[in-house]
Structure formats: structure tokens, C-alpha cells
């Protein structure tokens, strides 16, 4: 392990020289953790996440991570992460599909307890029949909990979102957990080019005293500052305290927007802003949408792409502005419920222009042709489908 | 379209919309918030001073970061808070010593509590107040509840990035900045023609008289059991 020197987050994320490597999404997660000055990582195996936490375990062996252990199961892992973060540590863990749901009760308590941790979610099917394929319906469970949720399109996003996630989550006006979700296998087990800053640099250590809540229980005797008093002593709360507590969590979630813009260049990416028809997508679907936009342009069709990087905070204003002149909006997704289509419909005044789909789920890949079919329909172009036997 | 100056003294109603939901952003370094809008610090300070000098029962609520932050910075900040209090006519100090809900009920003359900050405001008829040294999360809870149910003009002197739900919010405030605010208060006071000789706020009659010589196990609250005292024993010395 090289000697790592502490550098400012802005330098590491935005200015440091970068070197191109050809690595998997799991390796990209680990490369981010390597530079994040992580105190503790806690793992519980589940496919397709296991490889990531295995690699983080290697980082522990090499000295990049100060503590690492395997929890008894996901609920224990997520609870222990909360404990470690309350104790002042910077923490990382990752999970997938059913593992996420098993840990969900603990995870959704993190925002209310103001736990700044980073959680990698490598999506996979959660519904029966059993499958380990990369359906991303599980993201919909995270959207209403107060977590900051970023959705990575590729290996580069995985690295950038994860490293920036640690910085964003610990900003005093945010102080919330950050989820970096990406499609299992499609991204985690596939290689892509990733521009990496030097591995002999790392983020400054976490300063738990820079917090909007007391860093830990029993901090300042003789008056005991109980960390989450209103949460735990409900009998003596006012009617309003729970409401304003939740409001404060969601206010913090909104405040994350400016840091996401600062470190990740915006909540959305827009390709061809003057288009008539837009593909709006996140995660892997954005990669397929990007290809569809490219094909459509080659065919002379005026199609644009909006890649949604941040699902929470959701870029309502940005999407509304980008779609103000759109005639049709196609929302391809890797799940059956269409959580992104619902969000896009709710964000714009003329929701009737949103096409529900195409959607694939249960491990199917999302061919560009499916998106092209919707693009042709939006332009009123008829294409014959022929089966040659 | 965003409303101009959306964060005004209440009562806003049953459950006010958080300022962050109304599009109010925290100020960048060197700036401040006035009624939810980003302005120059000087402008916000003068408006805050005017409120403290013209509204009923101005009160400072120092929080744990001033009261219990036992380090040089916190001590200097606490001194600066007292210097500020001296310059505000008939100013009172009501502490926010911790964030626990109070059993069986809060004593609104002794302290303010984030579970019921409005009760302390209403009981004492406070129409202008300053939050200082309160952890940001708890300050935000309190400021919003005060805006919901009272007409109090709230001022947040924040050591971090500020608070959208206060009528006036200054950021990066430490002892020097509090003294700068004190100077603005004195200046505005003179402009308003208010005569005042600086003096410390009165002792809070609701608090037990401090005995700086003897420490009772009761002073250690729920840690008292660690001392294993006999019933009624008074500890004369401690390390």
C-alpha cells in the first residue's frame, strides 16, 4: 500500500490528475473506498454485491480500511454501520436485492438518525421466482426514506458517485446517508474505462464534531445530551416534533442538490437539449437510452437524452425545464413498476406525453431496439416486423 | 414563481412548509439570510438588531455548544454572547441545555426545549430571540415550530452554514462575529434613540442558586449512580 496523503475533497474529486483504467463496477466501488479514508466496512454476502465487499476486505488487509468484519446478516450489518457512524467513524457497506430488503428497516432509520454513511446497492431481482439478475425494482423502496439516492450508469459513475458520496453525506447541511445504486452484473461484473485520481491521495478523515447533531450519546456531562431524544421518548414529544423532524430530513435531502451539482456536475445530464422527443432514463437504462439517441440522430430524428443521476433529491425543476418543449418522453426502465416514469410524470405539467416504458425486468436485458420502437411511434414512423423462417 | 421574502414571523399555522421546500437556499460564505433571501451580512444584522431593540422581551437561547462546549473557542463565544446580551435593553437568557423531552413537563421559565420551543416563547411573551450554540438539526426543528405557533422574530447565529427557517440567519459565527453583531446592535440602538447602560441580564429566578463550593451528586443527573453516594451525602471534593 502506498503512503496516502490527505488532500482536500475538491482537489481529489475535481482537480487531481486522472489515469484511465479498465475495471469492473465492483473494482470501481473498491477504488473509491481506497481513496475515501474509510474507517469501517461491514459486509454480508449476497450476489451480485459479494465481490465488491470482498474487494473492500482486501483493502482492509492492505491497510486502506481501518476495520472490517462480516456481520451475522443484513439487518445486523446495517445496524452496526449506524452504530459505527454514531461513534464517529466513516463507514461503507453494500448489498443487493433481498439483502437490501432484509436490512431495510435499519436503513430507512438512518436518515432520521442523521447517519452519514455510503451504501452501495447493486440491484437484483427481489420478487419470486428466485433470480439473481439485475432488475432494479428495489430502488423504489429507497425513494421515500430520506436517503440521498444516486443511480450510476457505468463504472465511471460508480467511482465518482461513491467517492463524492462520502463528501456529500458529511456536509453539515446534508448529513444523510448516500446510496449509490447501479445494476448488478451489467455494471458490477462488466469492465469499462474509468478515470482514476492517484491512489496515494485520500479524503480528510471524518470530523464527527462537524455535525448538525451531537456526535454521540453521553457526550457532555453532567448534562447528558441524548442523541436522538425525540425519536426515542415519544411520550413527551409535542405533536409537531415528528413532523418537523421528517421535514428537516427532507430539507437536508434537498440541500444535497447543490453539492451534487458541485461535485458531479448536476442532477441530470442533457444530450441535445433542443430535441422534440426525449429519452429520460437512469442507471443502465441511461446507457441504452444514450445508444438509442445516437442511432436516432444517425437516422435524422431529433431525439434527446436526459440522464437522471440523482433520484433523491429528484431534479423536478431541471427535468421540467429540459422537457418544456418536448412532444414525447420515453422512459425505459429495468423494473415492472416504472418508478422513474411516475416521477417524471409528476414533475411535468403535461404528463400525457410520457410513454410508460419500454420496461424489462427479472433479468432481461434492455435492447436499444425496444427504445427505438417507441421513438418511431413518437414520430409516427411505421416499421414492419418480419419473421423470417 | 417563488414568493418574495417567504420567511416571516408567524404564526404560520398548523404545520408550516419548510423554507428549504420553498426554494430558500443557505447563504454562501460572507452572506446572510433575511426573510429567506440571501443578502449582505450588514443588511441582515441591522434588521436583526432592529427586531431585538423594538420587539417585546428579546431573549437569547444559548445551546449546548456554548453551554457545555468546554474548550477555549466555546468559552470565548460564551463571553461574547454575554457582551451582546448586555447591549440589548432588558434582554433575558433562557438556555437550551439539552435536547431531551422533559419529564413530566417543561419549565418554560427555566429553559427552552426543542420538543416544545413554542411553549417557552408563548409563556414568556418573547417576540424576538437569538439561537446560538444549538446543533443545526435541533435549531431547525425549533425555528420551524416557533414559526408555526408564535409571532416571534427568530435570529440564528450559526457556526456552520446557517438556517433557512430563521427570519435572520448569519453563518460562520464565532466570538468575533458575535462582537461584530454587538457593535451593529449598539449602532442601531443609537440611531433609534434608545438610551441604555450595558448590564448583564438578571439571574433566572426559576433556576436554583448556584453554590460554587459544594457539588451534589444530583448535579450529575443520571450519572449520579457512578458516584455511589449514600443518601443525602454531599461530595465536598472531586477530581
Automatic annotation (TrEMBL), chain A:
Gene Ontology BP term (one): response to oxidative stress
Gene: forA2
Membrane-spanning segments: none
Keywords noted in UniProt: Oxidoreductase
SUPFAM superfamilies named among the record's database cross-references: Thiamin diphosphate-binding fold (THDP-binding), TK C-terminal domain-like
UniProt entry tagged with the keyword Chloroplast: no
Species annotation: Aquifex aeolicus (strain VF5)
InterPro entries given in the database record: PFOR_II (IPR033412), Pyruvate:ferred/Flavod_OxRd (IPR050722), Pyrv_Fd/Flavodoxin_OxRdtase_N (IPR002880), THDP-binding (IPR029061), Transketo_C/PFOR_II (IPR009014)
Lineage, opening ranks: Bacteria, Pseudomonadati, Aquificota, Aquificia, Aquificales
Coiled-coil parts of chain: none
Name of the protein in its database record: Ferredoxin oxidoreductase alpha subunit
Pyruvate flavodoxin/ferredoxin oxidoreductase pyrimidine binding domain segment(s): 31-253
Gene3D superfamilies noted in UniProt: 3.40.50.920, 3.40.50.970
Gene Ontology molecular-function annotations: oxidoreductase activity
Domain Pyruvate:ferredoxin oxidoreductase core as annotated: residue spans: 275-351
PANTHER family from the UniProt entry: PYRUVATE-FLAVODOXIN OXIDOREDUCTASE-RELATED
